[in-house]
Design brief:
345 residues, alpha/beta, three-stranded antiparallel beta sheet, 18 helices, 45% helix, globular
Length: 345
């Protein structure tokens, strides 16, 4: 099972090509048990399918057939006839555990998310987004127009556990930054984690006005309330000025080179002379080894016509074109991300 929020790794593919043809059957079954919350129901121990079916308003024998099939992949285990328990593979399908993939499994299994992949051939033939071809709008416009899908995405993107960001704080020393501006920071969880670890720092969360309104409705943690500004706008038109550092997490991969350079130039213009640029993205590896990043790159092709994952050399070229010198590339432990540090050249 490939999980796109896990770190890149070398794996042994135990399935043959013929067996991999059926891989989407597995993902559909994982979606079903994630949506039903089966792993949460098993957190206290083994249960019979009748009890699981009653709790989820499903057909017991049909649910059994799905769980029996998943058990063959190490996801759940049948301990007695029609009784199942969690396995290490199934534990991550629980809602509130470190490394939970339940929201991921549900989001990627919803019709609006997987149907563009059914149209992968369109993207390969045209180089354009199958998502936009199918729905007539880009991904974020779709979320704005479809409340249920939008809420699902924002729940997926929002992780309130600040422990998730501990590896970022271990990887990079933010302590010398007086004012940190988070560009396209969404719900602001990364910025909040950095501010809480650095009590003398101030921050600015900058995103589209609707995103900022959403954050205002959620309310900021009391620990950072007086040290964080919320500003709405477009990073293609300009970003807040006067920051000591500008951080962009999973922003650049949404855009082609021209637009990515434009975003970075806006940061270059706005930051202090000795300011720093901090870009958090994946690095596209070379060679034939398995990498989640390669899958994510094809996903960008399908859902985002201008997006792509990039190699280290391509990041260096982006920084140079935007007027930055790339000074550091730091891997983020237990993730697929790297932190790219740049200064004005």
């Amino acid at each position: 099972m490939v999980l796109l929020n896990s770190k890149p790794s070398k794996i042994e593919l135990s399935l043959t090509t013929g067996e991999l043809v059926y891989a989407y059957w597995i993902s559909r079954m994982i979606y079903v048990v994630a949506k039903l919350g089966i792993a949460d129901l098993l957190k206290d121990g083994s249960q019979h399918c009748d009890a699981l079916a009653s709790a989820t308003n499903t057909h017991s024998d049909s649910l059994y057939r799905v769980l029996r099939s998943l058990a063959g992949f190490g996801i759940f285990a049948e301990t007695q006839p029609r009784c199942f328990e969690l396995t290490p593979q199934a534990e991550s399908l629980q809602s509130d555990v470190p490394g939970s993939v339940r929201k991921d499994a549900i989001l990627r299994g919803e019709e609006f998310y997987y149907k563009p992949w059914e149209n992968l051939m369109y993207s390969v033939q045209t180089g354009e987004s199958a998502f936009e071809h199918l729905y007539g709008v880009d991904l974020f416009e779709y979320y704005e127009q479809n409340a249920v899908a939008g809420e699902m995405f924002h729940k997926y993107a929002s992780n309130p556990s600040l422990e998730l960001y501990a590896p970022y704080l271990e990887a990079y020393d933010f302590s010398s930054i007086g004012k940190l501006v988070d560009i396209g920071g969404g719900t602001g969880n990364l910025l909040t984690a950095i501010l809480e670890a650095n009590p003398t720092m101030t921050g600015v969360l900058f995103d589209l006005p609707k995103s900022i309104d959403r954050v205002k409705n959620l309310g900021e943690p009391a620990s950072v309330h007086n040290r964080c500004q919320l500003i709405g706008g477009s990073f293609f038109e300009g970003v807040p000025e006067g920051g000591d550092a500008y951080v962009l997490k999973e922003v650049i991969h949404m855009w082609d080179d021209e637009q990515a350079i434009n975003i970075l130039k806006r940061c270059h213009q706005a930051m202090k002379e000795q300011g720093r640029l901090l870009v958090i993205e994946c690095i596209m590896p070379s060679g034939n080894e398995f990498s989640n990043v390669k899958l994510e790159d094809v996903h960008m092709l399908v859902v985002c016509s201008r997006g792509r994952e990039r190699t280290e050399t391509e990041f260096k070229d982006l920084f140079k074109s935007a007027g930055f010198k790339l000074t550091k590339i730091i891997p983020i432990k237990n993730s697929r991300f790297n932190l790219f540090e740049g200064v004005k050249s």
